[in-house]
């Protein structure tokens, strides 16, 4: 093989799982996969250098998530390299898919390789980058690419059919993802004086009351309401403190949705850490499994009738929970985003609810659980659209297309 793509393992488990899924398609396109182990960064860097020097004639690319491998890691960043890093010396193109809001990664952007292209999973994140980091190179098409899904039974070696029928699914409602109590995020603003702390807490309240707003717009509007004049650069400087706001709002609504479902009498199986800390009137209706792997989440989704999603404040993007649910036969019940509304039809291949009326979601779920024919219809329609458009295979094909354009 004369094409090599460098992928990363040993970091966040979900991102490693995404990379493994993508590696299958890279290999179909004739790419050799080189795995860089982030746990053994120094040793892995030496091995990568040796591998690269052994055959520089190969076409090298790198693909990563959330700046893994391009954040100053030992062995990759050193003054002995021309340009201060392995990436700059070799000029290897690096594609970085940022799966959170860019405000989390300001400190890493100065370390980005010279031959760098950023991919965003939400169109609002692209708008953010163009405004505050106009010098950062985006991948083609502005680098917009939502997360993909994984079909557990893709090779039909688990079941003879696509997925279990509703009647054979032993879990009524599932939620896959962690929970952290909102007060745990106080550490992000604890170093600020009381006026600033109140400003950020006020933003949390504003977004809870106006869940269609995005974090940076809420901050800008509130500053203007207070008569504070600021430049884009000054606004940019406060953005990392909005981690507190983003996480607080995300987990507030995650807690609200699961608590309301449980308190309405629906038993919700949660797969993720922290759900034993959720306070509600009927905690007996929350069946907690604790932290599990991505593979285990897929296993449980494939046994579930309904998979609940709460978007992590991606108002113009999507989350892999949506596609994982659809590809494995569970009906996805989710709050909306512009992307989801553009690509799916409520009641036909997805069920939407509004964060301003969570109780209605409980009513919809209860009704669906009594109508297996409707569940089967929605699950089948959702599977078809996702199998054709929303697997990691399709996302990888797009990345390869971009790689071919930008070489």
From TrEMBL:
Domain Spore protein YkvP/CgeB glycosyl transferase-like: 256-399
Source taxon at top rank: Bacteria
InterPro entries: YkvP/CgeB_Glyco_trans-like
Record-linked Pfam families: Glyco_trans_1_2
Gene3D superfamilies: Glycogen Phosphorylase B
Name of the protein this chain belongs to: Glycosyltransferase
Source species of the chain: Lachnospira intestinalis
């Amino acid at each position: 093989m004369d094409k090599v793509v460098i992928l990363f393992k040993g970091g966040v488990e979900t991102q490693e799982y995404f990379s493994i899924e993508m590696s299958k398609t890279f290999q179909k396109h004739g790419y050799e996969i080189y795995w860089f182990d982030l746990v053994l960064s120094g040793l892995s860097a030496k091995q990568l250098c040796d591998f690269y020097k052994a055959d520089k004639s190969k076409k090298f690319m790198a693909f990563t998530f959330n700046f893994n491998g391009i954040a100053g890691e030992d062995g990759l960043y050193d003054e002995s390299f021309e340009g201060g890093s392995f990436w700059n010396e070799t000029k290897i193109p690096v594609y970085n898919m940022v799966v959170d809001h860019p405000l989390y990664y300001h400190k890493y952007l100065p370390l980005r390789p010279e031959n760098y292209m950023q991919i965003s999973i939400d169109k609002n994140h692209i708008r953010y980058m163009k405004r505050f980091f106009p010098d950062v190179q985006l991948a083609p098409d502005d680098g917009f690419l939502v997360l993909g899904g994984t079909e557990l039974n893709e090779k039909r070696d688990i079941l003879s059919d696509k997925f279990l029928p509703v009647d054979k699914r032993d879990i009524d409602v599932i939620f896959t993802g962690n929970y952290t109590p909102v007060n745990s995020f106080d550490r992000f603003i604890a170093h600020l004086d009381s006026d600033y702390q109140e400003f950020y807490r006020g933003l949390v309240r504003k977004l809870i009351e106006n869940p269609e707003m995005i974090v940076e717009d809420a901050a800008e509007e509130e500053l203007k309401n207070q008569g504070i004049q600021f430049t884009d650069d000054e606004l940019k400087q406060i953005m990392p403190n909005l981690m507190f706001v983003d996480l607080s709002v995300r987990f507030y609504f995650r807690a609200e949705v699961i608590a309301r479902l449980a308190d309405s009498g629906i038993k919700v199986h949660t797969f993720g850490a922290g759900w034993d800390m959720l306070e509600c009137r009927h905690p007996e209706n929350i069946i907690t499994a604790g932290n599990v792997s991505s593979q285990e989440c897929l296993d449980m989704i494939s046994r579930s009738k309904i998979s609940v999603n709460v978007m992590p404040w991606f108002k113009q993007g999507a989350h892999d929970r949506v596609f994982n649910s659809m590809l494995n036969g569970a009906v996805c019940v989710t709050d909306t985003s512009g992307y989801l509304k553009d690509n799916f039809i409520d009641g036909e291949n997805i069920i939407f609810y509004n964060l301003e009326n969570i109780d209605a979601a409980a009513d919809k779920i209860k009704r669906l659980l009594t109508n297996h024919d409707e569940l089967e219809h929605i699950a089948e329609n959702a599977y078809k659209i996702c199998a054709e458009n929303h697997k990691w295979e399709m996302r990888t094909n797009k990345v390869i297309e971009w790689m071919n354009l930008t070489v």
